[in-house]
Amino acid sequence: MPAVTWDSLPGGELWDYDRFARDAERRFKLGAHSDALIRYLVSMYGTRYVEVLQWAQREPHFSDPLLPDEPWILAQAAYAVHEEMILTLNDFLWRRTKWAHLRDLPEEVVKRIAETIGHYLSWSSQDRDVSDPGVQNGVQKASALMKIGKKVLDKASAYLAKAQRLCVLTGAGISAESGIKTFREAGGSGKTIRLKRLATPEGFAEDPKLVWEFYNARRKAADVAVPNAAHVALARLELGLHRKSKKSGPSNGNGFRAPDA
Fold it and tell me: Helices 49-56 and 34-45 sit at what angle, rounded to 10 degrees?
């Protein structure tokens, strides 16, 4: 297995969070709750917190807390439009910041956020009107989906906590991000060569050279591939369970599995 090269996510180029946050607190002062705000922004954006602060300095109200007991500011909405490519209010509230997931937001706060995002995205007055039934319906649907998703994850977490053994069955697509094509991937081998010629005894009997070449090519691809985020997550799950018997079986024959605990 070749050495794995880890690339930091944007903003993730820091290795000592506490030290970095303390330095940031000394560097910037933004009112009575400056330290809490700076530490929050560092936890959210890493080294890119400075870019959010630059937006906070463009408009006086961009650095004011949206809620008295939360370090959330409008500058984050402006940053999300320009740097995170959000297009909807739900995208910002549920996916980017998860504010709506953490608590119910007053309509006035949602309105201020919609006005800020709408200004940069050239929304119509109706698009910015959070009291409009269409906008409310979209927010409510997103809220319902997030609550359903949380229930499913909570249930799955409870099952995992009680599990004595774990077997994870994944689709072949789990390794596609590592550069290993699925059989049926568009433009891949499954489209150009009929599967029965590659995955049946009759196909092997008809043309063994073709079958050997096909699987040898896949083995070579697996040899130079590196685990992607899904593989790493499964490995962490396996190691975190600390069980005596744990198995993980991808159906793609790619060689990726979690190391023995």
Answer: 130
Rg (CA), the chain: 25
Q: Is 172 in contact with 182 (CB distance < 8 Å)?
A: yes
pLDDT recorded at residue 67 = 92
Residue with tokens 């330095």: 23
pLDDT in the model for residue 191: 44
Element (H, E) at 101: helix 99-102
* Token pair 């023995």 in the structure block, residue: 260
The pair of structure tokens assigned to 95 is 């996916």
* Cβ 234 vs Cβ 192: under 8 Å: no
Domain with CATH 1.10.8.870 in the chain: 17-156
- Please tell me the distance from the alpha carbon of residue 160 to that of residue 201, in angstroms, as a whole number: 39
Q: Which CATH class is domain 17-156?
A: mainly alpha
Are the C-beta atoms of residues 63 and 88 closer than 8 Å to each other? no
Q: pTM of this prediction?
A: 0.51
**pLDDT of 244 above 50:** no
Crossing angle of helices 49-56 and 75-83, rounded to 10°:
120
Closest CA to 105 of 92, 122, 87: 92
